[in-house]
Each structure stands twice: as C-alpha cells, then as structure tokens.
Amino acid sequence: xxxxxxxxxxxxxVALECIRPDVTIRYxxxxxxxxxxxxxxxxxxxxxxxxxVKAATFFDDGRKAGKTLTLPIIRNEATACRITGxxxxxxxxxxxxxxSLRQSDFEWTAWTGKNVDFTIELGDxxxxxxxxxxxxxxxxxxxxxxxxxxxxxxxxxxxxxxVAKRVFPDDEIFVDGNFVEDIVLGxxxxxxxxxxxxxxxxxxxxxxxxxxxMDSKVCLDEVMVR
Length: 226
What we know:
Layout: E1 2-4, E2 12-14, E3 24-28, E4 39-40, E5 45-47, E6 52-58, E7 69-72, E8 82-85, E9 109-112, E10 116-138, E11 148-154, E12 161-167, H1 170-173, E13 178-200, E14 217-225
Antiparallel strand pairs: 1-2, 2-5, 3-4, 3-6, 6-7, 8-10, 9-14, 10-13, 10-14, 11-12, 11-13
Domain F5/8 type C: 103-201
Domain GH29D-like beta-sandwich: 10-63
Organism: gut metagenome
C-alpha cells in the first residue's frame, strides 16, 4: 500500500507485505529487477521523489518465489498532500499511484449515489493551472464517471473561488466498456494553498442500462495538480 507519509512531509509511505512466512521481500528503487542480493524490506519506505518501487519474494536459497510487483510513484503538486473534508476522500487520492482496470485493486476511492467534496492542502502557496482526476468506467458493474466536477481554490482554507467546472451529459457518462479516463480541468494560472474539489453524483443508471435503476458508482484513483 502507498499513502501520504505522516513522518516526512511531501513523501509517500510504501508498505509491502506477503502472507507467506517462508520468504523474504527484497526491493529496488532504481528500476532494476530485484534479485537475491537486493535490499531486504524491513520497514515502510519513505519515497520523496518520482521513483519506481520493484519488489519480489525470495526463498533462503535465493530462488525467486513469485512475480515482481512494480509500483510507479508519479509526482505532482498534490502528491503526498493532506486531504480533509468528506470521509470518503481517502489518502490514496494523493499517493502518487494509479489504479488499474480492477476497482478492487485498493487504489480506487469509491462511493455510490451521493455528492462528495474534499479539500487538498498544498502547504505553501503554489501557482497552478490544471487539475486532473482519474476516473474508472466499468459498465457491467454500474461504475461511471460523475455528473460533474468543480474546482475551487483558496489562500486561507476558508474563502474559496471557483476556477473550473465540467458537467457531463448522460450519453457521455453511461457508456459501455471498462476503461480509465483522466478528466482535465484547466484554468488561468492562479496561486493557491488549498484546492476544493466537488464531485456531483450521476444518479441512477438509465432504463436502457444493464443495471437499470441502480445508483451509479464513482471510482477515483488520483488527483493530479499542475
């Protein structure tokens, strides 16, 4: 798992684990494949730059026990920043790790049938001009992008100004397929210490949907600020 670190500002804490007691986890941070001589994992890793964590398990005789885990950590102005507000906004939204096509891979923050808003604390004032949010569509499971996104910025965390908003029609929301889509909200450059993102529910799946009348589900994996 990867979450913003509580010990090192602007760092991501990566924890590795394996249920097998007879193997040792070894890892690299330079992009190379781990082998029997790589560093042994013993405590969560503090990642403060854009890195790729590669980890694998090994038996005592040096044989590799399974596949290699590859965990790219991307960085932007929101990476490892604190999130406050709605309880559904998990720290994984700023952990620098993208989700896969599987909503169960622990990198997707999800909620059903309601509006949500959350605030990202950037710390020092930053000049920004774009917010990008990763969304998941899985038609058969009723997972679709939200009805709307609104971005507000603030210097003090109390007084917010709207800088961007996007609203999507139903024919762009309830589409067939299983894919990741990054929603980009661009705006004129502005200095901000806080960003509030409001996510509007798309409501129930339409009558011609494979799950008619079911509350649609929203899955977000990462908020990227530039």
